[in-house]
Amino acid sequence: MDGNGRWARQRRLPRVIGHQRGVEAVRRLVRAVRHMGLEALTLYAFSTENWRRPEDEIAALMGLLKRFILSDLDEFAANGVRLRIIGDYKAFAPDVVELIEQALARTAGNSGTTLAVALNYGAQDEIARAATRAAAKGPITAETIAAELDTAELPPLDLLIRTSGEVRLSNFLLWQAAYAELWFTEVLWPDFAPAHLEEALAAFAARERRYGGR
Ligand code: IPE
Ligand code: MG
Q1: Which of 3, 118, 151, 195 has its CA 20 to 30 A from that of 27?
Q2: pTM beyond 0.90, yes or no
C-alpha cells in the first residue's frame, strides 16, 4: 500500500493525513472485495524495514492501526470477513498485540473473504523463521518450508499489485510470488479504488499461466 506520503505531499498536507486516507482506501476496498468473490486479500501495512521511519510516524501508524480495528472490526465480523496476520506482530506494543488477538479471535469462525494484514512483515524474515521451524521437524524441502510460512493457511498467491509507480517487491511475499502475476500501477494508495482492483483482476484473468510448463 505505497504512496501515502506522496499523496499528502502533492496536497501540501502532513504525511499522517496520507496514511489516514490510506486507511479509508482499505475500508472501501474491503467492503468491495466481499462482493467480488475474492477468497483472500493480503495488505502490506507495516514492513520489518518500516522501523527505520521516524518515531512519530511509527506511532501515528500504530495509532491508525488501533483505531482501524476498533472502528471496523464489528463490520468485518458481521460480514463474514476472517482476519489473518502475517509477520511477527508480537513485536508490537502489548496493547496493539492484544487488540490484534481479539480481532483474530472474533473473526476466526468466519468463512467469507480472508483479509490478511502484513504487520512487521518481511519475506526474508518469514522464510528464515519458516526454515528454522522446518529444520526442527525434519528435512528441509520447498514443501516443508512452505508449510511453515506465515501464509500457510492462505490460498496460493495469484496476483500481486504494487501501487505508486514503484517497480519492486520490497520484501513482500518473495516466496509466494514465484509464479504470481504482477501488476504495477501509478495510482497512489489513498486513490486506489475498487475499480482499480477490478482493472487489475481483468488483466489477470486474461493472462496465460504456465508455471514453467508449456
Ligand atoms: C505507505 O506509504 C506505506 C506504509 C508504510 C504505511 P508511504 O508512507 O511509503 O508513502 P510514500 O512512499 O512516501 O509516498
Ligand atoms: Mg513508500
Answers
A1: 151
A2: yes
